[in-house]
Amino acid sequence: MHLAVYCPFLVSLLLGAAAPGLARRLPPATAARLLTACSVVAAAASCAALGFLASTVLGQLPALAAAGHWSAGRLAAASPVPRVVGLAALGAVAVGAVNGLWVLGARCRAVLALRALGRSLPGSGQLVVVDDDIEAVAVPAGRGRILASRAHLADLPADERRALLLHESAHLAHRHHLYRLAVDLAGAVDPLQRAVRSAVVYATERWADEEAAGAVGDRAVVARVLARSGLRAAGAPRAAWASLAMGRSGSPLVPRVRALLGPAPRQRPELLVAAVALALLAVGSVVHAQEDTETVFEHAVAAPHPHVTAGPVRHTG
Fold it and tell me: CB of 240 within 8 A of CB of 110?
């Protein structure tokens, strides 16, 4: 098994290191889509690579060797993977599975809480105004609702109030919660690229910022409403379902305000090509590692013993 099997781990490290910069330098919609797709591909490739490495240890178990019709001794001799590496990979597979199931369970509970919240909200329109002092939040349940505080909306000028609601509507229209859910799961099974999650949260928030700025026609208005909302939401408690609701979600406000006060980001083809090349490298490495693993197991198959059968001797003359 060649060094290609370890390439997906390098890709995950590089992706995690590059994600914040890509989220800042690319247009937000492009950054969110690109980072989410690359994160899922890198996580899948890393899981496959760990599986190939762990299989060289699992395959030496007598029960599996008998079921697979190969020799455990031949497999141990033919495998180029050190036993300690195979055991470490096996442990990483177990930890990744536990983390993935835990995150999936937490997100399922959040989805159920969101649905319950959606059913409890009054009215049938998208905007629900409540007396509670909360930050405006998009609730992606059913057709999607926007939950906002009456006092908060009353404190905002008309243009900033419109920008705030347009921002939350953009979250619902583009289903940003699905991007965040995808990178949450990818980061759970592949901790090497966990930093991608915060970059995608930032990119989806910036995506909604730019959508609101384009509709309002004034980027400074969106910057002002962000500053007001950030001050209002500072230190406010978050509900259990807030991990999927499109609210504050830990996204830093200062970089977003600075981005809105400057020109809109432009496409950077060289960054797109580099990110796609990383994802393709991970996929190609996994394909090569699969071929190597199959070759190792083929060499471990015990050769059948030749059998001599006696038959009638025929004389011709």
Answer: yes
**pLDDT (average), residues 54-79:** 83
Compute CA distances 38 → 80, 166, 201, 305, whole Å.
Answer: 29, 28, 15, 49
First-to-last alpha carbon distance for the chain, in angstroms, is: 58
| pLDDT tens column, 191-226 | 999 889 999 999 999 999 999 999 999 999 999 988
Element (H, E) at 137: strand 137-139
CA separation for the pair 142, 172 (Å, rounded): 10
Please provide the DSSP assignment of 37-90 as one string: HHHHHHHHHHHHHHHHHHHHHHTTSHHHHHHHT--HHHHHHH--S-HHHHHHHH
pTM over 0.90: no
Sheet holding 137-139, edge to edge: 127-130, 145-149, 137-139
Confidence at residue 194, expressed as pLDDT on a 0 to 100 scale: 84
User: Which residue in the block uniquely carries the two structure tokens 């199959």?
Assistant: 294
Give the confidence band of 305 by pLDDT, cuts at 50, 70, 90: very low
CA of 302: how far to CAs of 69, 71, 249, in Å? 7, 6, 56
How far apart are the C-alpha atoms of 139 and 148, rounded to whole Å? 11
Q: What is the C-alpha radius of gyration for the chain, rounded to an integer number of angstroms? A: 27
Phi and psi based region of residue 301 (left: phi greater than 0; alpha: psi -120 to 50; beta: remaining): beta
* C-alpha closest to that of 295 among 65, 75, 88, 49: 75
Within the chain, residue ranges assigned H as helices are: 7-25, 28-58, 62-68, 72-78, 83-120, 150-155, 158-173, 176-189, 196-216, 219-233, 253-261, 269-300
User: So what's the pLDDT on residue 222?
Assistant: 92
Residue 235 pLDDT > 90: no
Question: Cα 237 to chain center, whole Å?
Answer: 26
